[in-house]
Amino acid sequence: MQGGTMTRLRAWRVSTRVAGVLLGALSLAACAPSTGDSAAGGHSAKVKLTVWSWRVEDVAAYQKIFDAYEEKHPGVTVEFQTFKSTEYETKLGTGLGQQGGPDVAQVKSYGKLQPFIEAGQLAPLDGKVPGLEKFDKTVLDGARGKKDGKIYGVPFAVQTLQVFYNKELFARHGIQPPATWDQMLAAAGKLKQAGVIPFSVSGKELWVLPIVHEVFGAARYGGRDFEQAVLSGRKTFTDPDYVASLDLVKQLQPYFPENVTGVSYAESQLLFTSGRAAMFPGGAYELGFFQSQAPDLDIGVFEVPPPPGARVQHPLTPGYADGSYAVSAKSAHPREALELVRWMATPEFGQLFSDKLKQISPVPGVTAEDPLVRQMAGNYAERGSTYLMLVHFRYGRPVGTDVAGAAVQAMLLGRATGQQAGQRIATELGKWFRPGS
Q1: How far apart are CA 191 and CA 130, in angstroms?
Q2: How far, in Å, CA of 221 to CA of 117, rounded?
Q3: HSE-up of residue 167 (Cα within 13 Å, Cβ side)
């Protein structure tokens, strides 16, 4: 009886040791990287990163771009979620403030970025993204905190402002891209006489009008020389050269669509893609949309020649950093989110972005496949200026693009002169802007 008990006790001890070994093996297996992990990044299997954006029209292109990332990171999937541009900032503020929001967010640049930084909703990227220090400083400034000077995003695009034109319409009416202001006006007059809208412009939505002013007026007010003068306080928006640049928009109104202040942005795009309008003053971001909506449309671009009295005697291409990709401070997968934005700073991503979306990538070493994108990038590199209202005057309320848009719209409605528009801009921005700050 006693011997049987000892035998059973030894058997119990052996089985306990075996069970312990098995449990230990299972625990190690649970802690070890699974076979589905990314060899490149060492991610946990089945990590889903959510990327938020306001670029609804870019969904198909980004799916292809992120397919390339997922191939090299088999444990990670990237979900690209978009929202209406008019609703995006509100939704993003809510989403970044709680769990379940985006891991990576497309954020706007300069002043539009600051509220998210000040709320502590974005992770600083200084020293964490190889190659970021090689980006152009003016582009990086779009992702920089105004107060702390830290970088909070990887810039994704440089936008330039110029005139798109319909090559077939130009050829039909014997018109060449203008080399002088007078040639541009003569071409506009010829087109109008033939029943073609010369310039497709939207005067209904305020954000469009400062772009129109910048395209036609940058050389007149002086480009970067005026930029430095107004930032230092040596000049303001009542300066005669700046007022004269505003007057140019009013002078060109006969060549805009009839009742231009009632024309929406979408309608202005359709006027151009349908061939009813010959020229479209706008940003480089329009190209991909135009080509997708009208694949057979033969498009060219040109810089606006300097008008009479211009402070700069050669064409200018205004530009700005469009935005960047930032890591949410509350991401459930901060390591994987950081690796994704690191990839966004590489030539591989920059080339995919440029070629799929027909835009100018700020990543050093990227050369656009599309000849028009290369042309716009080259123009900016050689004769670039700053889109003043967007870059410097969105750090307070009211924002410069809204103020300038309302001022130009009042001119088009016949309710203000250029002098009054300039005074309105100076007064409104003077409520918060302090030179030298």
Answers
A1: 51
A2: 33
A3: 8
- Written as six digits, the tokens of 277 are 């309008």
- The two structure tokens encoding residue 308: 């009479």
Q: Return the CATH number of 47-156+322-376, one of 3.30.420.60, 3.40.190.10, 3.40.250.10, 3.40.50.620.
A: 3.40.190.10
* Model pLDDT, residue 44: 47
Closest by Cα among 383, 382, 400 to 391: 400
DSSP E strand stretches across 8-150: 47-53, 76-82, 104-108
Least confident of 42-51, 54-63, 99-108, 111-120: 42-51
Q: Which amino acid is at 36?
A: G
The Cα 312–Cα 316 span in angstroms is: 8
pLDDT at 422: 98
**What is the reported pLDDT for 38?**
39
Q: Amino acid identity, residue 328?
A: S
Task: Please tell us whether the domain made up of 159-320+378-429 is placed in CATH 3.40.190.10.
Answer: yes
- Residue 182: pLDDT above 70? yes
Q: Does 382 or 10 have the greater pLDDT score?
A: 382
Cβ 142 vs Cβ 108: under 8 Å? no
Residue ranges of alpha helices (H) inside 122-239 are 137-140, 167-172, 181-193, 209-221, 223-232
